[in-house]
Design goal:
It is a single chain. With 385 residues, the chain is α/β, with parallel strands linked by helices. The longest helix is centred in the last third of the chain and has 25 residues. It is globular and about 60 Å long.
Length: 385
């Protein structure tokens, strides 16, 4: 029996929506932020429409859906999804686990794509380190996000992880809503996407059976996310050098806000989501006598292989691979114009970096890794099949 009180991590209840919306529309910080995303927004009309929302579902479908869709129209060439036939039959709730490219948009884009193909909107895991302003906390909880607590002591972290896991199991089994969670804490800044065993360990904690059965009941479905361009690539490269030059370097809240702003507003080119095969059949084939830590590692590898196999690649990925490894391996997948366009893009992004002792060769290599690592992992995955 669940004895936890989820009030500090759950999305807002419907009876809390009206008060939350009133707090939002009177918050100058929220208004300023929204004006960046929607510069031509009729604020008074938005406020009037917001005040009509009485439930989370209404807020998401009447307002949030259209804001995210506008972001997609302004900052992507295309936003597409494939693999819908792999979704659980009958609309059964599942746990989507994906690689992580953008702080805000990975889950937001997935949700509107799922909505467009007739699926329910997922609940979204978000780290409390991103709740920098009170209005951000309100917006994410209105949009079906639940809070992952970070930056707490080891003992508190264990209890928080158990509570989070119980909440996820409760959501899948009782409220029948799907979940989205990233495969790791934070983005893989070099795009070398690997599932952290600690995420799977957390997910298994909240069930009532053994770890293998607990994970099976969550109906895990990997999702491969492919951005043609990552607008935060230069910020990620900059962070690599800052950490190289000063091992004690830690990003500030201002850095997180800048990453969110750039990620939302700047060009991403083509963006594609691939729903991969549910992993329960693969879990059933794993040796039941396997040590628990080995089990988590084996399941993480299953998720990784599904994601690696289902990336969508663009000319920049092939160009970056050949540039980084000084090969002509993928020369037939792009032409001279593609190569020049990517080289020009790369230089434009590098020019945005303004730090002491700027090491352009190092920064260029890190950015080339970001665009070539998904292809590298895909190739190695093919070799291992």
């Amino acid at each position: 029996m669940n004895t936890y009180n989820f009030d500090d991590i759950r999305p807002l209840n419907d009876d809390e929506v009206s008060g939350a919306i009133e707090a939002l529309v009177t918050d100058e910080g929220f208004r300023r932020a929204l004006s960046y995303v929607e510069p031509h927004l009729d604020w008074e009309a938005f406020v009037q429409k917001a005040r009509q929302c009485q439930t989370r579902e209404q807020f998401k479908t009447m307002l949030s859906y259209h804001v995210v869709m506008d972001v997609a129209k302004q900052s992507t060439f295309s936003l597409t999804i494939s693999g819908r036939s792999r979704l659980p039959e009958g609309g059964a709730p599942c746990t989507f686990i994906s690689n992580h490219r953008d702080i805000v948009l990975d889950a937001a884009f997935l949700n509107i794509l799922l909505y467009d193909i007739g699926c329910g909107l997922t609940q979204i895991a978000i780290g409390d380190n991103l709740l920098i302003q009170p209005w951000i906390n309100t917006v994410v909880r209105l949009n079906n996000s639940f809070i992952v607590k970070r930056g707490i002591g080891m003992r508190e972290m264990l209890e928080a992880s158990k509570k989070l896991s119980v909440y996820i199991h409760h959501t899948i089994k009782e409220t029948k809503e799907s979940i989205w969670i990233a495969q790791r804490e934070g983005r893989a800044k070099d795009s070398n996407d690997t599932t952290q065993s600690s995420v799977l360990k957390m997910l298994s904690m909240g069930g009532e059976n053994d770890a293998r059965t607990n994970l099976t009941t969550l109906n895990i479905v990997p999702v491969a996310i492919s951005y043609e361009f990552d607008p935060c690539d230069y910020l990620k490269a900059q962070e690599f050098q800052m950490k190289r030059d000063n091992p004690d370097f830690v990003k500030s809240q201002r850095d997180d806000l800048l990453n969110m702003e750039v990620g939302v507003l700047q060009n991403k080119g083509r963006v594609h989501f691939t729903i991969c095969r549910p992993i329960n059949p693969a879990i059933e084939k794993i040796d039941p006598e396997m040590d628990k830590n080995e089990l988590f590692s084996a399941i993480a590898s299953v998720i990784d292989r599904e994601i690696y196999a289902n990336y969508r690649f663009y000319p920049c990925n092939y160009v970056a691979y050949d540039m980084l490894y000084q090969t002509m391996r993928f020369r037939d997948t792009y032409d001279l114009r593609d190569k020049k366009l990517f080289e020009s893009y790369l230089q434009q992004q590098l020019n945005k970096i303004d730090i002491p002792d700027k090491d352009e060769a190092y920064l260029r290599a890190r950015m080339l890794e970001m665009y070539s690592n998904p292809l590298k992992n895909n190739l190695e995955n093919r070799d291992n099949i």
